[in-house]
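Tokens in:
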């Protein structure tokens, strides 16, 4: 990988162990961070690496250093032109970071963080609180680099992720009803056992590591006009924006977050990180109620726009919700300014839960008019259901589920209500089904297009 900023290229491309600088004074380009106000919930433990009073602004040279140091253990993922380009009216490229070994970009920051520890810190080990991609990334690279890793996960953590972290040799503690409680426990344990606590989006080395994806994007798509990036705690957008703007300041950096947890937008409005309510979302990786202080301090002046998306629109994506957030912004037509431009969207995580994937596929079918639910009241005489199924099968509709209802009906004693879930080819086929039912039965209720109860 090459650094293309001529002014500092020599020093940047050496494997220097970079001392990160703290901004003790505010500069004019970034809004000053504010200490927690009375309305902000106080954290029980203090992480000196993420100090709201002394935020770190990560430097471009840190990213170059990270790229050099981690290159033996991270995949340079492809950035390929998407066949959705004509539909979305732009030259769309997907940066496929879900192809990293553990399925997400989080490996970049985790590996750099681990490699930057002192020998003694490596021997003692690290700890983090995470139920997702950061936990997997840290566990895997800890194993590769022989650094003991402990992960504290909330009780709601998916069993698959717990098992995978264990397979990577991490010690798992399931403590806490939610991730904030797990974090408190992890920080307490860090103090007790002399572990280094690794914040998965705000540790300066994690931000620098994530930025290496930006160097690859510029290398792979030199004529890029805009990058649309999902935002959770802000580590990815901070690193990417820094790497890209340093080499090509004209590139627009657009942050996308879930409307169910828009902590970056809230921080931009308040000019410092504030706590917002985090509701459950398909993009669980983005549900971080407060943007990282270092991430915000690094990213605020580099990000051109932040927008929120409703992720239900993305139900048909096979990458995980968080990983596909940027694409959701384009598909929903919220970025008309990108028409005709060259746009890169990082698909940065592929670890979708199997059950969540199943639900997504079903909802996708419903949105497409291919999964239909209807109720019809018919005669409870022999042949009543036969007649209904014959009508349906004649037009090629397939029944997925069928249920009889007799007891709770108030009308004719010889009638029965039949509830059916059926699969159709498309919306037109669904209309044909509705027409045939209404022409043959007087009492029909038809539900299509995701109106399921
Ligand atoms: C797949 C995926 N995309 C994006 C993000 C957001 O990254 P960050 O928290 O650094 O903003 C995450 C965070 O976990 C993630 O897992």
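Residues out:
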């Amino acid at each position: 990988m090459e650094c293309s900023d001529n002014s500092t290229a020599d020093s940047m491309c050496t494997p220097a162990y970079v001392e990160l600088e703290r901004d003790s004074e505010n500069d004019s380009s970034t809004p000053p961070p504010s200490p927690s106000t009375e309305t902000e919930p106080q954290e029980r433990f203090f992480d000196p690496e993420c100090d709201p009073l002394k935020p770190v602004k990560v430097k471009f040279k840190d990213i170059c250093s990270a790229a050099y140091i981690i290159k033996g253990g991270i995949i340079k993922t492809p950035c390929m032109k998407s066949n959705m380009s004509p539909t979305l009216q732009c030259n769309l490229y997907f940066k496929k970071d879900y192809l990293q070994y553990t399925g997400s970009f989080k490996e970049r920051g985790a590996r750099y963080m681990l490699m930057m520890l002192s020998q003694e810190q490596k021997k003692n080990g690290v700890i983090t609180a995470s139920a997702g991609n950061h936990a997997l990334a840290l566990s895997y690279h800890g194993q590769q680099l022989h650094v003991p890793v402990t992960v504290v996960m909330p009780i709601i953590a998916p069993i698959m992720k717990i098992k995978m972290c264990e397979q990577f040799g991490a010690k798992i503690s399931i403590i806490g009803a939610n991730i904030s409680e797990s974090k408190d426990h992890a920080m307490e344990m860090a103090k007790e056992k002399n572990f280094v606590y690794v914040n998965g989006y705000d540790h300066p080395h994690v931000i620098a590591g994530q930025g290496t994806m930006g160097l690859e994007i510029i290398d792979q798509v030199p004529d890029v006009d805009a990058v649309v990036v999902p935002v959770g705690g802000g580590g990815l957008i901070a690193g990417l924006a820094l790497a890209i703007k340093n080499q090509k300041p004209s590139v627009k950096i657009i942050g996308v977050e879930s409307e169910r947890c828009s902590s970056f937008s809230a921080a931009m409005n308040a000019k410092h990180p504030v706590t917002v309510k985090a509701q459950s979302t398909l993009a669980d990786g983005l549900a971080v109620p407060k943007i990282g202080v270092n991430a915000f301090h690094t990213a605020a002046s580099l990000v051109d726009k932040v927008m929120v998306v409703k992720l239900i629109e993305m139900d048909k994506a096979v990458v995980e919700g968080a990983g596909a957030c940027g694409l959701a912004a384009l598909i929903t037509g919220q970025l008309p300014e990108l028409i005709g431009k060259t746009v890169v969207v990082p698909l940065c995580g592929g670890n979708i839960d199997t059950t969540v994937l199943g639900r997504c596929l079903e909802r996708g079918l419903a949105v497409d008019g291919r999964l239909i639910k209807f109720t019809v009241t018919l005669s409870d005489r022999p042949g009543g259901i036969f007649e209904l199924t014959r009508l349906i099968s004649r037009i090629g509709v397939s029944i997925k589920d069928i249920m009889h209802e007799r007891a709770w009906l108030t009308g004719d004693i010889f009638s029965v209500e039949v509830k059916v879930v059926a699969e159709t080819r498309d919306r037109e086929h669904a209309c044909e089904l509705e027409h045939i039912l209404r022409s043959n039965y007087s009492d029909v209720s038809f539900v299509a297009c995701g109106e399921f109860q």
